[in-house]
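A quick aside before the break. I want you to see a complete sequence-to-structure record at least once, exactly as it would be stored in a machine-readable document. Don't worry about memorizing anything.
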Amino acid sequence: MIQNLDTTFLLGDLNFRINMGNDLKTLIKNAEFLKSMNQMEKFEQEIKGLLTFDQLKIVQAQDPILSGYTEGPIKFLPTYKYDVGTDQYDSSKKQRNPAW
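That is the input. The structure line, written in tokens, reads:
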């Protein structure tokens, strides 16, 4: 018997990040500046550029289970962890990359 199911549940570590090196923080700061200057077209181009390094997008292109997954348009910058009570980017040994 063949069944067609309408719902798929994904369980596990779904904490996808951005696969990019140290330039990532600089690119995010540049995008923040563009947004503050109301240069929204350039800001959105920066986001599109960052999305090409998004781990979820990369996996979706390779994995048939995630290929049908859709999400709304991303029109905001990724966020990242700061040290508690500071504006210092994650200085723990994990050094987490930003994520959406």
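Two observations worth writing down. Helices lie at 23-36, 40-51, 55-62, 64-67. The mean pLDDT is 85. We'll return to this after the break.
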